[in-house]
Amino acid sequence: MGDHIHFGNIRDSYLPYGRQWIDADDIQAVVNVLKGDFLTTGPYVLEFERQVAQYVDAKYAVAFSNGTAALHAACFAAGIGEDDEVITTPMTFAASSNCVLYQKGKVIFADIDEQTYNIDPASIKDRITSKTKAIIPVDFTGQPAYMDLILNIAMEFNLIVIQDAAHSLGAAYKGRKIGALSDMTMFSFHPVKHITSGEGGMITTNNKEYFDKLMQFRTHGITRDKEKLQKDEGPWYYEMQFLGYNYRLTDIQAALGTSQLTKIDRFIELRKKYVDMYNKAFKNMPEIILPFQHEHTESSWHLYIIRLNLHLLSAGRREIFEALQKQNIGVNVHYIPVYLNPYYQELGYEKGLCPKAEKLYNEMITLPLFPSMTEQDAEDVIRAVQKTITLYRK
Ligand SMILES: *Cc1c(COP(=O)(O)O)cnc(C)c1O
After folding, report:
1. What average pLDDT does the segment 101-118 reach?
2. Do 276 and 347 share a domain, yes or no?
3. 193 and 159: one domain?
4. Are 375 and 243 found together in one domain?
5. Could you list the residue range(s) of the whole structural domain that residue 86 is in?
6. Which pLDDT band, with edges at 50, 70 and 90, does 8 fall under?
7. What is the CATH number for 214?
8. What is the share, in percent, of the chain residues with pLDDT greater than 70?
9. Is the pLDDT of residue 5 over 90?
10. Centre of ligand 1 from the C-alpha of residue 2, in Å
């Protein structure tokens, strides 16, 4: 099979798996900043921080140039350094573990839970040693991780929890918005995420000490705070007290982010509408395992992932993926387990480390999901999937 099959005619244009939705008022918000006095380090960054903190019900928020920089800052604030071990999931974007390496810490990968694909608390517990310092759970696809169990483990072993919520802005765990459950929570505003500032990221926290460190880390480790200065040589005086970075967000970006945030609830509603369409269409197809939702979680649906029951199919994931691509459906795979990347392989991580994550990787396909897609787009995806699965049904 394969080459002689004609897959065309589902749609003329390519449907991406995700994309931003920018309106006239978003554009106007950016234009207003461009006409003003401050392009960076101005009032819009503060306003964006204030709005995000309020939305997720956290005391403090610190904006960064991107989510990866925010994770790096969180690892710094948590005091992660050489000899420290940090446990995270391999079923994530490389940033969730790279941030540990930036601080010279050691990444320990725990396996996933087969139902939600989130990090398995039992596997976390298995991998704790006397060197373990922190856990970085990822709210995979927008569904919050097993936060009660993770926070209990953190309490028992005195660990810091940095929640990677790049997928889960607007999601809830046991009725509480994601953003202040963990010591620090990271959001990303990359264009495929729930809201965008072009590039951008944020850490939310209820902890003043973390907040202070994050702020200083964002600007080279420099402070002008009189209470923190070792001496005072005059009104111009500042001190660089540790090695920080320039990880600042611009006011241009912050204005876009703030404008986008006013639409978050509608964006999530629309995502849910397309998720319902997919669920309904695929629920009677035994070849497809639908995304399982835990009773304690309310996902904000960053990604919609189907898992293939390969023993019911005459083709592998690759053929099915390529067949969907040929029909102009922008499928994707989230993710290649991080430690299978050559860089991590060279660090000594071996295949087989997290068997459940590796198995999932071989069976998963991400379908297009974003608020500005249309019902027709979703129907195109459904028809293409049904057609392809029917063709390869054993
Ligand atoms: C997007 C993302 C990040 C970081 O994103 P940036 O592109 O640096 O803003 C981190 N973790 C996960 C799981 C992500 O999806």
Report:
1. 98
2. yes
3. yes
4. no
5. 24-261
6. low
7. 3.40.640.10
8. 98
9. no
10. 35
Q: How far is the CA of 168 from the centre of ligand 1 (A)?
A: 11
Those residues whose C-beta lies under 8 Å from the C-beta of residue 13, and which sit 6 or more positions away, are: 328
Question: How far apart are alpha carbons 101 and 339 in whole angstroms?
Answer: 13
Residue 3 has pLDDT above 60, yes or no: no
pLDDT-derived band at 255 (thresholds 50, 70, 90) equals very high
Which residues 6+ apart lie within 8 Å of 91 measured at CB? 112, 117, 119, 138, 140, 335, 337, 357, 360, 361
Which of 261, 281, 299 corresponds to the end of one domain? Answer: 261
pLDDT tens-place string over residues 337-393 = 999 999 999 999 999 999 999 999 999 999 999 999 999 999 999 999 999 999 999
Specify whether 295 is located in the same domain as 205: no
Domain match, 190 and 296 both: no
Q: What is the dihedral angle through the alpha carbons of 385, 388, 390, 394, rounded to the nearest 10 degrees?
A: -120
CA of 321 to the centre of ligand 1 (A): 24
Please tell me the distance between residue 1's alpha carbon and the centre of ligand 1 in angstroms.
Answer: 38
Pair (255, 345) in one structural domain: no
Residues 173 and 36 in one domain: yes
Q: Which two tokens stand for residue 149?
A: 């169990």
- C-alpha 369/C-alpha 314 separation (Å) is 27
In a domain, 312, yes or no: yes
Q: Indicate the residue type of 55.
A: Y
Q: Ligand 1: list residues with CB < 6 Å.
A: 66-68, 92-93, 95-96, 138, 164, 166-167, 188, 190, 201
DSSP 232: -
Give a yes or no: residue 163 inside a domain: yes
For residue 334, which atom of ligand 1 is closest to its CA?
15
For 106-110, what is the mean pLDDT? 98
- Which amino acid residue places its CA nearest to atom 2 of ligand 1? 166
- Work out whether strand 106-109 and strand 222-223 pair parallel, antiparallel, or are unpaired: unpaired
Is 385 among the domain residues? yes
Torsion sign over Cα 59, 61, 67, 71? negative
For residue 4, tell me if it sits in a domain. no
What's the CATH code of the domain at 270?
3.90.1150.10
Query: Mutate which of 188, 195, 366 to test ligand 1's pocket (most atoms within 8 Å of Cβ)?
Result: 188
Our count of domains for the chain comes to: 2
The pLDDT of residue 1 is 43
Catalytically annotated residues: 193
**Residues 124, 241: one domain?**
yes
- The string of pLDDT tens digits covering residues 177-200 is 999 999 999 999 999 999 999 999
